[in-house]
Amino acid sequence: MEKVLVRPNPTREKTLDIMPTIVSAIYRYGFKVFIGEQFKEQLAASLGEKATFCTEEAGLDQCDFALV
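Request: output the structure for the sequence above.
Response:
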């Protein structure tokens, strides 16, 4: 299973609002999705088990791709 680190830009309007849609699409293609732990409070409930929260450094170390 390919792993991808997704980093939203929280300064852009509605970026965090559309993250569940983006993560669901990536997850559907068989990727394991990682997101920086600083977004856990805002996104954990809406993403459920589709994403793993970790430090960005750890995500970069273990992921095949980084989407910014």
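Residues 3-67 form one domain.
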